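Q: My labmate handed me this sequence with no annotations at all. I'd like to see what the chain might look like in three dimensions before we decide whether it's worth expressing. Could you predict it?
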Amino acid sequence: MKKTLIFITLFSYFLTNSVFAKNDLYEKIDLFGEVLENIKKEYVDDVDQSEVMDSAINGVLQSLDPYSAYMSPELFKEMQTDTRGEFGGLGIEIGMEAGVVKVISPIDDTPAAKAGIKAGDYIVKIGEEQVQGKSLMEAVKLMRGPVGTTIDLTVRRKNLKKPLEFKITRRIIEVQSVNSEIISKEKNIGYLRLKSFNENSDNQFLKILKKFQNNNKIKGYVIDLRNNPGGLLTQAINITDFFLDDGEIVSTKGRKVSETRKFFARKGDEIRGKPIVVLINNGSASAAEIFAGALKDHKRAIILGENSYGKGSVQSIIPLTNGGGMRLTISKYYLPSGKSISEVGVTPDIIVEEIGDDFKINSERDNQLNYAIKLFNS
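A: Here is what I predict for the chain of 378 residues:
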């Protein structure tokens, strides 16, 4: 009898709370309708109710995290061009922070990188348009335009009092994900610069590794992930697996059981235990952080440079019935140590602040790469 009373009491409690929660939700929906009606009747200018609703929907999503966003049918169609690996624009990976567009990373050899845009910059003005109050997708749309046309960006940079202004010419962005070279005076260090983790990066990377491995004089590798904005999770797993014999690479955790997974390395280290130095900076994000973090946790590589960006979440693109779409965070990445990357990033084993940002071989200003080379020669 006592157990029955406890069950009835608990059931009544949860039922009452559920009813209150639903009532509260309905009240908020009614309140939103009231606000919208007052805007329609009283606001100083005429407003497009459809645009107001789009902004409201986007506001809900962006209140969750910087990477969730709503795309109107027009924007959704434009965003689908990104998946083809070739698109018109400036060449930057961006996110939102405190209502302002933040540069995650400029992509190598693109107009933005050549103009001097840096990871961590805040874009406050696009042409004559203030960015504050706009959605991420609206900002992207403003930055895109016909190839060959120019755009003015006003940027706020950490530790600088005055804003910076850049005039950038749009062009087709084609990302060649892997560059390589044998470096150092003794010609015995394999250098691979991985610019992004796109759908063919693992094949390109493995082909170069095998070519390097035919050179018996190579005694180690520098893998450069600076300003790598990330990309596909599968590519991060595949490329990390090239250097591990076993163990966990990364795990994802979400609300759904299907989004909670662990990924493990298969036997076979492609470079047979030779030393690795991985270069990262504030522009190394997402898949790049998975790679660096896994090799660090397994003590398979020395991580050198600056703390990475801290984008440790997985987004899914969900089509909507109106022809638009939403980008929604569905899970988070966790390193083999169990640590989350989100808003924390990967901390280097050796912290070396960069003094140059051209990342050119044999450049005296690339102090991070030069430091890495000395590690092999010591």
